Amino acid sequence: CIALAGALQHVPSLTELDLFRTNIGSEGCITLAGALQHVPSLIKLDLSANEIESEGAIELAGALQNVPSLIKLDLTGTGLKCFPEIRISSGIPSGNALQPNSIGSL
Fold first, then answer.
1. CB 40 within 8 A of CB 13
2. How high is the pLDDT of residue 55?
3. What's the pTM?
4. The Cα angle at residue 11 between residues 6 and 12, in degrees rounded to 5
5. What are 40-75's pLDDT values in tens digits?
6. What pLDDT score was predicted for residue 12?
7. C-beta separation of 33 from 6 below 8 A
8. What is the DSSP code (8-state) at residue 99?
9. How far apart are CA 39 and CA 20, in angstroms?
10. Which of 10, 33, 45, 104 is most exposed, with minimal Cβ within 10 Å?
């Protein structure tokens, strides 16, 4: 995931990132979260079928502030049950385009 995070610096116009069943885990999710600032045009992020614990989710939620165009976040099958609460508690601004019903089936 470190290589992916580094590569994201070179594709600021990226609109979709599909990481379905890549075993990204919480550590990878934390690394990815740090790189999301480089892809402000991201519209869709698929992290489904990856085991992500609360630490990774908290970092991800905080990083979403840097991706104002994100409208689809798929966390289906990640084991996360409280992402909406994490999202709110991390201070994602209401201007973020992410719709509450676009998070996938938790």
1. no
2. 87
3. 0.82
4. 110
5. 999 999 999 999 888 888 888 888 888 888 888 888
6. 94
7. no
8. -
9. 18
10. 10
The pLDDT of residue 102 is: 52
Residue that wins the pLDDT comparison between 54 and 1: 54
Structure tokens at 66: 């840097």
Burial of 77 (0-12, 13-18, 19+ CB in 10 A): middle
One DSSP character per residue, 15-83 reads -EEE-TTS--HHHHHHHHHHHGGG-TT--EEE-TTS---HHHHHHHHHHGGG-TT--EEE-TTS--S-H
Q: Which two tokens stand for residue 70?
A: 């994100």
The residue-averaged pLDDT of 78-102 equals 59
- Tokens at residue 14, please? 């990226």
Angle, in degrees to the nearest 10, between helices 54-63 and 25-35:
10
Kindly state the tokens that stand for 27. 């550590």
CA distance 96 to 46: 17
Asked whether the beta carbons of 57 and 30 are under 8 A apart, the reply is: no
